[in-house]
């Protein structure tokens, strides 16, 4: 019983330390840097490893920080930006679906269409007709 109590105390201490580490201002700055990088370079397909290497964090540590700060994973954020840009291109850019997908960094049209529908509730071609 004493051993279990001690283990629980240690786990609680580790969790408190992890929570404080994630709240560090440096982490918010790193997340902000990556958010801006992805938004400005939405047509590039950065891997999580590349992103973490750019800012000098380990992959597992930064993924935890990014999700804690933003509520979503790096890949989810990257895909959200790409799909929003594609939607804008379809609506305002005089592009067809293939052109929009390629401009935002998708080479696989089937994957693009599935992801687009999952995130917007519509097929890209339906959105094109609405615009």
TrEMBL record:
Q: Which keywords annotate this record?
A: DNA-binding, Transcription, Transcription regulation
The record ties this protein, via Pfam families, to: HTH_18
Known PROSITE patterns for this protein?
HTH_ARAC_FAMILY_1, HTH_ARAC_FAMILY_2
Ranges for domain HTH araC/xylS-type: 32-130
A GO MF label: sequence-specific DNA binding
Q: Which SMART domains match?
A: HTH_ARAC
SUPFAM superfamilies, alphabetized: Homeodomain-like
Descriptive protein name: Helix-turn-helix transcriptional regulator
Per the UniProt record, the source organism is: Paenibacillus hemerocallicola
């Amino acid at each position: 019983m004493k051993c279990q109590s001690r283990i629980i105390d240690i786990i609680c201490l580790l969790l408190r330390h992890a929570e404080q580490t994630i709240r560090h201002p440096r982490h918010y700055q790193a997340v902000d840097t990556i958010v801006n990088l992805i938004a400005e370079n939405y047509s590039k397909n950065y891997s999580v490893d590349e992103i973490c290497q750019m800012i000098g964090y380990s992959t597992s540590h930064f993924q935890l920080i990014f999700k804690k700060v933003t509520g979503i994973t790096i890949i989810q954020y990257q895909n959200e930006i790409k799909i929003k840009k594609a939607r804008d291109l379809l609506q305002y850019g005089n592009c067809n679906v293939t052109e929009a997908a390629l401009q935002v960094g998708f080479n696989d049209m089937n994957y693009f269409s599935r992801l687009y529908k999952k995130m917007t509730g519509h097929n890209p071609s339906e959105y094109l007709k609405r615009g």
